[in-house]
Amino acid sequence: MTFVRACSLDEVPADQALAVTIGDLEVAVARNGEEVFALQDLCSHAEVALSEGEVADCQIECWLHGSMFDLRTGKPTNLPATEPVSTFPVDVRSGDVYVDVDTTLNGVTPS
């Protein structure tokens, strides 16, 4: 695993995701209480930034059509999206968020 610093934990809002670029991949970093998650910042339905949507109840909403994705699994929890998005390992160290974009937790290859 190759963890790369994505951001400071303080930069991640409680009710939205933070868009970060790691290598050539756009990643949305989100919080659910004390847990921190990272997923590809691209809706599998409409190819828009998930980081522009709201985060609640361990889900992120695509702002364009309202699809919701589980932060843990990347799976859509309602339509119109039917395909999951990539999720990545996260490590929080000394107030910084590190993400490994070379490894997907759910086996979905980033597009």
How are the SSEs placed, and which strands pair?
Elements: E1 4-8, E2 18-22, E3 25-32, E4 35-40, E5 55-56, E6 59-61, E7 68-70, E8 87-88, E9 90-93, E10 96-99
Antiparallel strand pairs: 1-10, 2-3, 3-4, 4-8, 5-6, 6-7, 9-10
Question: What this model shows, in words?
Answer:
There is one protein chain. With 111 residues, this protein is an all-beta fold. The chain has one domain (4-99): Rieske Iron-sulfur Protein, CATH 2.102.10. Helix content is 0%, strand content 38%. The protein has no helices and ten strands. It has strands spanning 4-8, 18-22, 25-32, 35-40, 55-56, 59-61, 68-70, 87-88, 90-93, 96-99. A four-stranded antiparallel beta sheet has the order 2-3-4-8, with no helix packed on it. The model has no long low-confidence stretch (mean pLDDT 95). Keywords: 2Fe-2S, Iron, Iron-sulfur, Metal-binding.
Rounded average pLDDT:
95
Q: Indicate the structural class.
A: mainly beta
The 3D shape can be described as globular
Unreliable spans: none
CATH topology: Rieske Iron-sulfur Protein
Highest-level CATH class: Mainly Beta
Number of domains: 1
Number of strands: 10
Major sheet description: 4 strands, antiparallel
Distance between the termini: 20 Å
- Proper CATH architecture: 3-layer Sandwich
